[in-house]
Amino acid sequence: MPGFGFSLGVTLFYLSALVLIPLAALIIRPWEMGFDGFWAAVTTPRVLAALKLSFGAAAIAAAINSVFGLIVAWVLVRYRFPGRKFIDAFVDLPFALPTAVAGIALSALYAPNGWIGAPLAKLGIKVAFTPTGVLVALIFIGLPFVVRTLEPVLADLSRDAEEAAATLGATRLQSFRRVILPSLLPTLLTGTAMAFARGVGEYGSVIFIAGNLPGVSEIAPLMIIIKLQEYDYAGAAAIGVVMLGASFVFLFALNALQAWSASRR
Amino acid sequence: MTPMLRPRAPTDDHPLTKLVLSLVAVGFIALFLLMPLVTVFWEALAQGMDSAIAALREPDALSAIQLSFTVAAIAVPCNALFGLAAAWCVTKFDFIGKNLLVTLIDIPFSVSPVVSGLVYMLIFGLQGWLGQDLRDHGIKIVFALPGIVLATIFVTFPFVARELIPLMSEQGRDEEEAAVSLGASGWSTLRRVTLPNIKWALLYGVLLCNARAMGEFGAVSVVSGHIRGLTDTMPLHVEVLYNDYQYAAAFAVAALLALLALVTLGIKSLLEWQFAGEIAATHSH
Amino acid sequence: MSLVIEHVAKRFERFPALKGVSLTAPKGCFLALLGPSGSGKTTLLRILGGLEFADAGRVAFDDLDWLALPARERRAGFVFQQYALFRHMTVAKNIAFGLSIRPRRTRPTRAEIARRVEELLALVQLEGLGKRYPSQLSGGQRQRVALARALAIEPRMLLLDEPFGALDARVRKDLRHWLRGLHERLGVTTVFVTHDQDEALELADLVAVLNQGRIEQIATPAELRAHPASDFVADFLGQAVPGGGVVPLRTARAPTLKGKIFKRSEENP
Which of C72, C74, C76 sits opposite A171 (nearest CB)? Predict the structure, then answer.
């Protein structure tokens, strides 16, 4: 069939010029400071706090989304009620809504005078302009990853195994815990991991609600921008490399996990 | 025959379980997804429709809208053509390193938007690899349209390719091979055999690519330089207005973007319901 | 103490699956439900297992109002056509499942469960395979794991849905003899669904021939061969009668072919 050389050439050129070479620039840049310089750049208390917040909040948000995402997916796949298709389509909102729009909306919503922020403020809970605000934004952004990953697998899950469990005397809860959940687990982990990876790097939806207090509610991507504004390109690249490295290690672990779980069935 | 009490099937949840789980799911979605969306429109119209429309007719707003459309108009076709080329070579031929290539195409999805902007600063920025040379020759890449387009292309890079690759590998090579054996050239095979088979998936990918291109914030924010009326896209203009405490105006522009997102969602769902089989199986972006 | 099914009827959205089925089978009997696809035989089996619910009718078994019991309280060992083994569990865990989920009060000790699993593995001739996963077994082995899993709960009744449907012909023949032997040893009332007249006639004590949601005839294999009650029964058994017998070969062909063609798309709504 014709077109191999041409299509491969176009692909490789485009990929290299726009993705690979720029990424190489990122990976090479920090080392002009030497390893010590690199290490110093990513271990200042402020940068460390930002990295901790980005990874920590992303992990907590992903954990929360794994629970509620499973419930949402379960309800959307298993139950029939009016408006189901509509809600199902709506779950994709965080994919479609520009992050800045989500950011200012969440910020207005959870501000001390906002619809949700005001009642919470009465209870003495502050969300906007604290790390909790970061968490809220990351829950928003991560939910569809869990739901969309689970839905097709849940729909394909054969009812036979559940029926078998019932005939063997299992209660509904036992069926869920011992039969359904284990077969969903690899998928659930994949979706959760994707939500986590997205959360670590998320910027637009977070910065408005975070308040960006140095050492308290600054996220790692914001540190990159701050370094750039200070013309510290190498320092910015160093943080970028840490984030990139972490997400690749993470994706690699995820692939290994999937390969392992695939080998068992 | 007496009518019997109908027990629950063993794969059915207890009605109470159903009720509780449904309420939790709907409540969670309402709280975390619906309320932010409602807030956008509520705040946009807080000072009336007229003031919202006036905010969109500000010269800076108009130039931001124009810039966003310009960027999308360049980035989306580029990525669509690339996606087509990549899908063609990956699905119609076997070669060493194919899996690696597919993995590499997906990389931009696992990179933080800010890092996506950063990589171009490291090349074209004033302190970047080519920064000094570009300045000597008076060429502006970052803090100008080209940089914004590059950053946008980076973050929307895989959208079309990842829609087409699974679908085209599922469809196989038979039809194309038949066309070629009947004497069709490569181009006419692509145009008359392949494209009709993948048109809905292509449209789907382009739709998602476009939505992200118009709405991208993090990557563009790094390379734009925030020059009002010149290098601010719509999302950046939202930020500028918001930080200026012009909330109603910020939300008016945000509402325009939100409308765009809703239209995208609508068309996307329509495509999924109508052409489920002609769009690739997995969608998680 | 026998299995008594009275006027059981079931309608699905589009078509009636069972139009008032009645039969009686003695306890310990090996009963075959034989019929072409769409005859309602699988629906009847699923109703007995508690996986589907009758719109009308009664079933009595073991002095119990059988249909009033939820599936998990029936202790009806159900073997699914595609086995429905738990893929993430080892063979041993699969077999132990029904015992290990019992409430603490009635649950055997770990050691006791392990001993039972070993016994059952021996019974189904799979000694030493307890640590494997279902994906590492052949079709015939999976079939026997599914059977062992169903037997582990000491079932009151054993229900087999096309037990040999997914196996190739040679394995089928072997398993058939083995299953008959097993039934003779255990004496559990067993109901199995099949579209294969050879299988029904060779294995069962009693064969109920179903057609379009009704029982055409219920009789011992010998009686069925000698006195088919209707043209349908005669036609359906046609091929199994050696040398033609009472059934002319020509009328026997068509429905047999039909049965073969549709055998993979057994009704299972």
Answer: C72
Nearest CA in chain C to B11: C51
Question: Rounded CA gap, A142 and A138, in Å?
Answer: 6
How many angstroms separate the CA atoms of C256 and C194, rounded?
13
CB contact under 8 A, B123 and A22: yes
Examine residue A23 and state whether it is found in any structural domain, yes or no. no
The per-residue pLDDT for range A153-200, each reduced to its tens digit, is: 999 888 899 999 999 999 999 999 999 999 999 899 999 999 999 999
DSSP assignment of C195-235 equals: S-HHHHHHH-SEEEEEETTEEEEEE-HHHHHH--SSHHHHH
Quick one: residue C63, left, alpha or beta (phi over 0 = left, psi -120 to 50 = alpha)? left
A98 CB neighbours in chain B (<8 A) are 214-217, 234-235, 238, 254, 257-258, 261
Q: What is the CATH number of the domain that holds A174?
A: 1.10.3720.10
Measured CB to CB, residues of chain C less than 8 Å from chain A are 49-51, 70-78, 80, 82, 84-89, 97-98, 101-102, 133, 135, 149-150, 152-153, 159
Asked if C175 contacts C164 with a C-beta cutoff of 8 angstroms, the reply is yes
Kindly calculate the radius of gyration of chain C based on its CA atoms and give it in whole angstroms: 19
A123: amino acid identity, one letter: L
Helix (H) or strand (E) holding A60: helix A45-78
Q: How many residues are listed for chain C in this entry?
A: 269
Side chain identity at residue A165, one-letter code: A
Cβ–Cβ < 8 Å for B27, A108? no
Task: For chain A, give the number of residues.
Answer: 265
Confidence (pLDDT) at B163: 92
Q: In terms of C-beta distances under 8 Å and separation of at least 24 residues, what long-range contacts does B177-186 make, across chains too?
A: B177/A1, B180/A1, B180/A2, B185/A2, B186/A1, B186/A2, B186/A3, B186/A6
Subunits close to C (at least 3 CB pairs below 8 A): A, B
- Give me the residues of chain C with pLDDT under 50, please: 240-269
Q: Is residue A49 part of a domain?
A: yes
Q: What phi-psi label fits residue B245: left (phi over 0), alpha (psi between -120 and 50 degrees) or beta?
A: left
- Flag whether A16 is in a domain: no
Q: Residue C84 corresponds to which amino acid?
A: A
Segments of chain B scoring below 50 in pLDDT:
1-4, 281-285
Q: Which amino acid is at A215?
A: G
- Supply the range of the domain harboring residue A44: 32-263
Q: For C162, list phi and psi in degrees, rounded to 5.
A: 40, 65
Q: Which of C42, C45, C75, C97 to mutate to test the interface with A (most CBs of A within 10 A)?
A: C97
- What is the DSSP secondary structure assignment for residue A44, as one 8-state letter? S
Instruction: Report the domain count for chain A.
Output: 1
What pTM value is reported for the model? 0.89
B79 within 8 A of B160, measured Cβ to Cβ? yes
Mutation target among B1, B6, B12 for the C interface, most CBs of C within 10 A: B1
- Considering only CB atoms, A167 lies closest to which of C71, C86, C88, namely C71
Domain assignment present for residue A17? The answer is: no
